[in-house]
Amino acid sequence: MPLHGLPEHRRVGPSGGRAPGRGGALMGGTRVFGEPIPRREDPRLLTGQGRYLDDLGRDALAAAFVRSPHAHARILDIDVTDALDVDGLVAIYTWEDLPGRVAEPLPLLIPHPSLTHGRTAYPLARDVVRHVGEPVAMVVARDRYLAEDAASRIRVDYDPLPAVVGIEEAARAEHLVHDDVPGNVGAVLEQRTGDVDAAIEAAPHVLEFRLDIERSASMPLEGRGVYARWDADDGSLRVYSSTQASTSVRAAIAAKLGLPPGKVEVIAPDVGGGFGVKIVHPWPEEILVPWAARLLDREVKWTEDRREHFVAAAHERGQVQHVRVGFDDEGRVLGLDVRILHDHGAYTPYGVIIPIVTSTQLLGPYKIGAYRAEVVSLYTNTVIVTPYRGAGRPQGVFCMERTMDRIADHLGRDRAAVREVNLIRPDEFPYDQGLTFQDGRPLIYDSGDYPALLARIKELIGWDSFEEERARAAAEGRRIGIGLGCYVEGTGVGPYEGGHVEIDTSGRVHVATGLTSQGQGHETVFAQIAAAELGVPVEDVRVTTGDTRRFGYAVGTFASRAAVMSGNAIALAARKVREKALRIAAEALEADPRDLEITDGVVHVKGDPSAAVPLRTVAVLSNPLRYAFDEEAQRATQFAVGGDATEPPLRGEEPGLEGRDYYSPVRSTFAAGMHAAIVETDPDTAEVRILRYAVVHDCGRLINPRIVEGQIHGGVAQGIGGALYERMVYDESGQLLNASFMDFLMPYATEIPRIETAHLETPSPLNPLGIKGAGEAGVIPVSAVIASAVEDAEGIRVHSMPLSPDDLYRLRRRAERDESLRTRSGARAARERAT
Amino acid sequence: MPLHGLPEHRRVGPSGGRAPGRGGALMGGTRVFGEPIPRREDPRLLTGQGRYLDDLGRDALAAAFVRSPHAHARILDIDVTDALDVDGLVAIYTWEDLPGRVAEPLPLLIPHPSLTHGRTAYPLARDVVRHVGEPVAMVVARDRYLAEDAASRIRVDYDPLPAVVGIEEAARAEHLVHDDVPGNVGAVLEQRTGDVDAAIEAAPHVLEFRLDIERSASMPLEGRGVYARWDADDGSLRVYSSTQASTSVRAAIAAKLGLPPGKVEVIAPDVGGGFGVKIVHPWPEEILVPWAARLLDREVKWTEDRREHFVAAAHERGQVQHVRVGFDDEGRVLGLDVRILHDHGAYTPYGVIIPIVTSTQLLGPYKIGAYRAEVVSLYTNTVIVTPYRGAGRPQGVFCMERTMDRIADHLGRDRAAVREVNLIRPDEFPYDQGLTFQDGRPLIYDSGDYPALLARIKELIGWDSFEEERARAAAEGRRIGIGLGCYVEGTGVGPYEGGHVEIDTSGRVHVATGLTSQGQGHETVFAQIAAAELGVPVEDVRVTTGDTRRFGYAVGTFASRAAVMSGNAIALAARKVREKALRIAAEALEADPRDLEITDGVVHVKGDPSAAVPLRTVAVLSNPLRYAFDEEAQRATQFAVGGDATEPPLRGEEPGLEGRDYYSPVRSTFAAGMHAAIVETDPDTAEVRILRYAVVHDCGRLINPRIVEGQIHGGVAQGIGGALYERMVYDESGQLLNASFMDFLMPYATEIPRIETAHLETPSPLNPLGIKGAGEAGVIPVSAVIASAVEDAEGIRVHSMPLSPDDLYRLRRRAERDESLRTRSGARAARERAT
Predict the structure, then answer these.
(1) pLDDT tens digit sequence for B363-388
(2) Is A630 near chain B, with CB under 8 Å?
(3) Are residues B281 and B134 in the same domain?
């Protein structure tokens, strides 16, 4: 059954109860596309057979880094004398030792007109350090212990400078992070549609408030790591990196080291989570380690330790938002004005993509009369800020959904009902928000059914019957609350990905795409796509990702784009291979290609399984060499010897049963979802316990519901971390006080409730498979949902995240204190400021 | 200036005096295509910077082989006990240790219907050895010395069997090489056109004689070698082999070791000559060394030593030919009947391609009334016989040209005049010889001007004034003679080659093709082709050959096919890249692609050099990533951010300024040449000295005359070796008596005269560049030319090659003895038998 047709919008029940839908390809009676088959990588990964960065290069030299202990300081001197005594020391490098382009500042990856004062770090600090953890010297030694020993003996003489820590302090600009960046302002950007001032002025109701979102971080269980081998015979460099963007790392290394890109192989091996931090490239270590490997002509490896990951990788989230919203009596938003102060840390290698995403994705499933977002992106003497799963969306959704709850509260209306009146209707797609998306293209939602999502999440969580539940709990002396959060997520951002599909002469199918995997299940879903397109058992398909040897052009894994971009590219490539296989088989079978089909890896005449040729033989026939290396293949090629003497042997085909194609969409596709939770708050300890968590999710056609649900579960777990636990605690001197897993709290499985999931499928009209991205979805609305539910339980206002028991306790106290203020309310004149 | 048009037939003067012709591409005032630029590989190769097989893997374990000392024996027992004491021994393998497909006989590469009894060897002898040198056991040790020590301690108990040595003994079949091959006959094949018996019967004159051509061998200065690395992390194998066919070696290793081809990388590094012996694949060592490397998870290397190359690689040439020819009074051949006994050695891994070539290429530039060649290809207990430069053609030309000389002698006519009347005329092309070529396709000559070649060689050597010269020499008591030899060579055999051309973001051009190089100058000529097509300086072009990582599909380097096949594929690929560059540049320059040209690596509007964009920037623009790694590129991509929002970023193009194409001809193209020599024979020592040697050569359009001349010079030198020095001297027990460079004579520079060369260019109409192959040309007619000249000097008949002073001395004695026989002659009844 071909996949070309997009199935009609269909609704699918909760996990496990999914009804067999249309549109999947049948394979020997088993549907491949759309089926919740187990993850093919799990037997390997769950039995410890994964090959992560640190599993490689066991004989390699080890690198360690001397990192700044100061948030801001001038380097006066670096004295390596004592380190030279360490037995097994191979080399010590400081900025002075770096040649040519290796010594230059790292590239600014995503220039944007708003980023008027972009700044990047030197790979090793040149004269000033701007955050604790900034690398100052690299040590290479026989093993990591010796390298650390030597690093600890290097004495760096610093002249400390005042540290700028926190958004307010950055905005005050009493001190500057970069001497030549006035006001610490890296970028000012605005998104607007309509006349927001006039709209708010004319609105029956206006609210104004402030929101605070703390810093958190991707925090993959495997940190970063780089392992490089120089091949002097070949003049080539092989670099393994725990990266989300191997082709881009390759481009950076090639440029920095002056090598042709073809002489640099970058491979992302098994990667233990990325969540965004590994999309940054090149990390200084990704340049320095390969450079040293070539210079020393020795294998060199560096594996990030956890403290390094806290202070020398990247953070995200930290924003302060000032909201002003005008709305009518039903809660319809007439004008929304948001001022966002964004803390981008000490440098901007990844540009200002996060606040761009926040300011454009904030509107979610709603149509807003007029909108303006102004972003000021600020330097601080802290770790750089780059995208972390959700990438600015959790902050935007927190803002929008807090706004919806405030409107409902103000009007005394049901929170869901207020959202309902603002939703974009199904007949309004494609819906143009009138903004410019992160890819520089108009922000146009391709498809969706937001009212259906809302109805479904209400049904799933029992929204309309919650008051009975609350009453029952109250009767038991328990406080419970219900919360809701909605979002739309631009996924599958361009510009492109490519896929390569090859059927070899053993019948194995090799699928390659350039983007990388960090555990998402690409080996499974890409194999499902190829198997469905080709008509082969999914077991016969092998998938390679993130290996520049196999596919040299790619963008990378981020922005929930892998399935949309590479999935469609692989489908297109597989269709080319299928067509080619049918042409060649048709000749061998003396049939019309249109009369053929492929079942279980065998091309046969429809309705006549005896007129058949296996794909492995088609692969032999595809290459008009005069011989092959097994008997069956040799028999097959016998026919081809000599061939039709009037035609060239290739007959206009390229040799090999393989095909390559690219998918490059006009614009992104927009997934959506709504989450709801019921929480219980402890009256004494102020602990928040999540009793139920429900997700309705629409990422278009599902390739594998099990994997989508896994993504949602992981995302919700990470979102719960952000909602209740995770924060980066800096002191005023810029020291990160909780830079370890002892002090930085992340949820265990014990903190994560069972997540009830249902799917809606509104296929994307933008791509052949009708799919949308799902990788980040789970995390996006969680803070908003939890805040909403805690507010509902407590009758207080939650304006910052995360919300620790301590925070909640303080909010309760403040609420009691402010009780008198609460009584003030009014129609148009209401102005309220929450801290 | 485009290369697309084929220049008209033009005549070019002797070396150095070549007049500027038409059709070359002008590059900054310098013609690139067609110019005799110096070989770009020479600075590297001539200063010892080449990286040959044995330069690699210095830390690898070493393999050595126990080889049979018997030409034919049954293996009773292999006792390795004593070898186990050798310190540093890692492993010993015999056939019993080989698993699965590794244990199977090697593949029979080119099956042919005539090869009814093809046999191949086991990689290690299983129970019977069939030639001295056949591998029996493999030893792996810490270094080669230790491996050889251990090998020498392995005791193999043999039961010797009678050895079949020499064509006559094989044909007698008193003993069999293979029990199951009756008569020792591997193949019987026939080529025929017309009714040869009737034609000879009706001919006014008939001659019958026998010719003997000795065995020789390719004898590259670098022997074979294999170096393998298993990458356990990657599950991949990298194999360096001194091979002429890296993709085929890869296919064989993958099949034998059960690896996907994509997990096997085969690289031919710098290779010190091949001349055919390295096209055989897989050699047993090419399977065994990688197999051991994977098994041991250690690098393993084997480098062939000279004795191994003599007894365990391959030989060629050895044939006995029985000729019967009928002709008219002018010497026009009416019927030619040749019976060829071909010695193919102990096994037939490469099929019967050599006698196929002999029997089809024998006719040379002549049209023969009726023709029949019958080949019997025989097993002997000697080293296998596989193609060596010329690959059966020297034997065929020896036969045909000896026949022409015999006819001239018989009729008392000028030897050149007899050839003249038999030549195919220029207006007869395409000329169908009515035979089936080695590729299974009709033997049709595409173009040529044989009368012009003959006129030119006569002019160059001074044919018509030679009698005066002879008289002057005779007056000085010196014997001199003049000889002539003509040939046509099918070159550029299919089925295909491919080329990949990429311009990277630094402006460097990377050209890759799958076939291999053995010193021919591919780095130079392929760069010339790409530079001319692209409009870039030849210095900016880098060429990679024989590296499966860079190009995975190829046939290999043999049959004078590299320039024709890969050269045209590269030209076609470069044209794609040029078109793409013009499209992209046109957009950047807001111009029409048709108004653009490329000069010195810069695309510019014709006549307006200011409206220009360098190719390196076009390369950046070709990949719609959002960033690049140098400032100029980043500026260039600024324009591309966002792009035209109505179009997908790729706009239907694949990313990257690169292109791939294949060239697959309907049939081969036919080069031709004529050689002439003047020799002096010493009346006392019977030494033959070559006074002058002239070549007129037509390989279609010349890419680089200097390289073509280098090929001709090397070929003539190798031909002189075959004509005067080289032979494999086997004793009756199958021992090769001269298996070293002390005993096997090859000419030094001192034996090679200055070679006078002139070119004719009759472009091939079959390929875009109009070129024909030139790699083997030089060697083909040399034996015939020298035989002709010695006959002319001595007044004797030369019916065997090589001709040592000893041989000549014996011929003189026999001639004196046979003087009386010489007087017998007559018209139709003449029958003569020479031994």
Answers:
(1) 999 999 999 999 999 999 999 999 99
(2) yes
(3) yes
